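re: ur question from earlier - yeah i can do the single chain one, its not a big deal. heres the input i used so u can compare w yours
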Amino acid sequence: MKQFFEKIYFRPRGLDYLWIALLSPLSVVYGSYMLMRRLIVRKKRFSVPIVSVGNLIVGGSGKTPFVIALASRYENVAVISRGYGRQSRGLVEVSRKGKIVTDVGQSGDEAMLMAQSLPHASVIVSEKREAAIAFAKANGAEVIILDDGFNRVDIEKYDILLKPAYVPNTLPFPAGPLREFSFSECFADEVVQEELDFRRIVQVAPFEGKLLLATAIANPARLEPYLPNTVVGKFYFEDHAYFDEHQLAKKMEEVGADALLVTQKDAVKMDRFKLPVVQMKLKLEIEETILESIDSYIKKYKELHEE
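and the output i got, formated as tokens:
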């Protein structure tokens, strides 16, 4: 089922368009609900600048590396995430001013990656973002970055919407991969498009042997342009899934691989594995004008609330 929807969302061909047409009335209902919610819900104000990094499309669009790049620019910054795929509930402090205070099972993979990548920031996961904002403020946060927060229409914030370079299917769920109608991007303060406003820089550590790609990310086909020609097999898991070391070792043996090729998000869940691991490291090259606009918002917000 997952493969079926990934195909009609990201690689539709031929009869896929029939399924899209059949599901489109449900998409209109869902999109209309999300639009009404955005229009009628009142925003709650917090006396701290909040910058949201989000997207309309399901799956990876560069949110995590964008959050990391943004949070690294500020002091006394807290990153708040829902913590998808974690084995915990409620509010969990992942790191406190760079010191990691929990494990990946409690935090989730993306939050742990952010905590490991931000040596001076605090990272918090919580289903209730308002509670996490209050916690961050009480612990001295002067800037808050809200990960995947575009659809949190009840919070006053500066919305950055990341947009892929190309989306073949621009319908909302379930006929398409969008969380709202495509025109909802007009509600964002900044629409940041890949290849125009930011670019992905992917580096793979040099390795002489054969590689097995093992990954638990949404729409793993997006890794294809970055794979070295030494990849001899691919092993895909559900997004945010946890790995079994013995299962991976068996798969490596089956395809004759000498090491695993994984994303940074996958690697945080393999810290204790004894298998050889090669990482695909991703960072974003972001247009300076985008970062300057965010800096300006934060500065003006602070000046306004200091008066």
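The CA atoms of residues 211 and 231 lie 5 Å apart. not sure if urs matches, ping me
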